[in-house]
Amino acid sequence: MFWKKKRIGLALGGGGARGLAHIGVLRVLEREGIPIDLVVGTSIGALVGGAYSSGISAEELVKKVDAYLNSTEFQSSAIKAFESAYIKGEAGLTHKIQTYLRNTFYVIQAMLKPGILSNEEFEATINYFIPDIQIEETRIPFRAVATDLVSGEEIIFHQGSLRQAVTASCSVPGAFAPLKEGGRLLSDGGIICIVPSSVARQAGADFVISVAVDRGIGSEELRTVVDVYQRVNEIMGERLKDYELAEADVVILPEVGDLHWSSFSQAMNLIDEGEKATRERLDDIRRLSRITPKAPVSRLLMNAISNLRTKKSPVS
Fold first, then answer.
1. Is 227 annotated in the active site?
2. In terms of pTM, does the model score above 0.90?
3. Are 50 and 165 in contact (CB under 8 A)?
4. Percent of the chain with pLDDT over 90
């Protein structure tokens, strides 16, 4: 009997630093020999997925992340400053003053520019993880999802510059300026597609593994306008996520808590959580992604002959 292999697609969702858990997911799938035939990513999922699809192994990604976070470039970056400003718990007076000054600076930046963080730093980060190749050259077929802020359309990159596709997908609204491409303004794919399960399905995946790393709906009190605005976004995001996860065959939910999107210093813990959550779903992945039987050629030929015999001859 002949067998047809299911085409396995991996959909990696957005969530800022929480998306580093995707590396842990890839680490386990790699070790267990589960083949991935297609990778689709949104935002941080596009960054991790694009790097992996290009041929960088999960272990290499762990090393690259560790080296990047310990580099002077990251330690002095605006993203690191952003993370420090959102440290939870009791902070000393000096830290509170620094946080106030940083937040004031970012508010001023927000009034003057389409993105409050440096495009140069952003581009350097993308270039560090993503090779300068075309999407068509990736080892594993890859798709990146972005949002056109002009038309509101979902943009799916399947060809062209890998770096440009990942940059567009990772352009978090407000944090980084949208990417201009012709008449389009491209921003974070997570605006309308937080976990790209449906894109993986449309791209030909028979079996979809989806990984969600968003914060979900918080439990904080709604004291300010910012709190209310953030809660509205969380509710909309949760609805969109539920819609997308309905398209998945297996859903992996790493325990990422309510970390701020800039909490990259938690990288190794997040990677561990990705591994843990994936190991818990391994049995389901193996069971549900089993190959399906395909009719033997001999049977197909006999069916064709039988059909021909039952057809009536044309009247002369």
1. no
2. no
3. yes
4. 49
